[in-house]
Amino acid sequence: MEEQLASPARLTQYIAGFSASLGALGMGTVIGYSSPALPYLTGNATDTVHLDPQEAMWFSSILNVGALIGGPVAGVCMNNIGRRGTMIASIIPFLLGWGLIGFGENFIMLLAGRILTGMCCGIVSLVVNVYIGEFASPDIRGALGTGFQLLVVTGVLYSFAFGAFLSWRMLVIACIVVPCLFAGLMLLGKESPVYLLIKGRCEEAKTSLQYFRGKNYPVDDEFKEMRQSVNLAMQNKIQLSDLLKPYYLKPMGISLMLMFYQQFSGINAIMFNLVTIFETTGSSMSTTLSSCLVALVQVVGTFSASLLMDRAGRKILLITSATLMAASLFSIGAFFYLLEYNESVAEKITFVPLLSLIVFIAAFSIGYGPVPFLMMGELFSPEVREVAGSIAIAANWTSSFIVTLMFQPMQAVIHNYGVYWVFGSICVTNLIFSILVVPETKGKTLDEISIMFGAPAKSPPIAVV
Q1: Does residue 465 form part of some domain?
Q2: Per-residue pLDDT reduced to its tens digit, 166-186
Q3: pLDDT for 245-254, tens place per residue?
Q4: Is residue 388 part of a domain?
Q5: 311 within some domain
Q6: Which residues, 6 or more positions from 362, have their beta carbon under 8 angstroms from its beta carbon?
Q7: Least CB-packed of 102, 183, 187, 278 within 10 Å?
Q8: How far apart are CA 139 and CA 6, in angstroms?
Q9: Is the pTM of this model over 0.85?
Q10: What local confidence, expressed as pLDDT, does residue 145 receive?
Q11: 234 near 460, Cβ under 8 Å?
């Protein structure tokens, strides 16, 4: 019995993590929507809306601008209406954005809808990871954090699967169900104990922590440590200039580089244009089936990462991920080089792009997909989490916007093969960064991680009154 009481209850945390991560499912549907929708929007001139190639490029990439806005909005809302409150409130721009797309009669309405749904992506990508990081036990924090990325890629698959047989307008109806379910489940959830402590609602905070740990688990010691950590954070209110202190700057730099490398692997540029990419290769497999297969691999890979995260650790997954991504991108580039300069050879190996993309997506999914978001919630101490997290999310979506917007112009200038070789080269530098710079955070408490970067130890304890 004593041994049983020594471990916090996991089921409640898994349920809470899943409920919050439904926001990630909604984010995935937004990311995945453009790939099945664009063939309708660019190919059906009889509909009220018809996009030319330039407009299609903006339709794919503009959600990143919305997400860029959403990060700072989330930072403000998290501090004022709470983590849970922010997630519930996100239903409003979700519904407005999808409504504008579904009822869109012109390009401007579609862009406005993509900006609003993109803003929700920025909100969700910050608040969900912070929320989970604040209630999760160290032994399952990795698995719960990976659940975010798992549901993002499941959302992409959701859009691809429904997009295989629904028109672009009907696909909106399928997508809008997800944020409604997300908001409904969060109404039944509990607020983060850290947020409640920040607001001075100590009894509610302890009740919240007890809820997440299980009614029989002794939370006094953990609550005392959490409270002293929050008290110190409140006493040491930071200015933006404080982020230049080494114990803030180093984790900030690592998080920003992880976000940069995640997007400059080319992941979103590839996923947004997956159907078009397969059309270019001339593969005998249908573009819809190929896209769904790649998305399914992403789901399986991310699920595998959730099982490995607290066993193998973050660093080894990043190293493995970067290595395989680089190899697969160079392979795709080689195929497109042959397709342009030796088409007869390329026609014999049309399986290479699909196989290489499967390897690329699987590799991304076990490492550089989930780990940057997970480590964002781990690397920042409470006093800088909202500010630093907002900056990291902004960097992620800025990188995504640049890569997605430049994808087609780069194809025109350096050809398809050049684009993939550039992404592959970036993954090589990514590998070096993962080996030399990224620390291992597996199994460490958030305080231990802060101390690892040289932050002042949070002892002796502050008296709890």
Answers
A1: no
A2: 999 999 999 999 999 999 999
A3: 887 888 889 9
A4: yes
A5: yes
A6: 297, 298, 300, 301, 324
A7: 187
A8: 12
A9: no
A10: 73
A11: no
Domains identified in the chain, total number:
1
Contact 19, 147 (CB under 8 A): no
Provide the domain limits for residue 282.
Answer: 9-189+236-452
Distance CA 205, CA 191 (A): 8
Q: pLDDT tens digit string along 22-47? A: 999 999 999 989 888 988 888 765 56
| Both structure tokens of 104 | 């869109």
> Is 220 a member of any domain?
no
Residue 126 sits in a domain of what CATH number? 1.20.1250.20
Task: Return d(Cα 294, Cα 73) in angstroms, integer.
Answer: 33
CA atoms within 13 A on the CB side of 268: 29
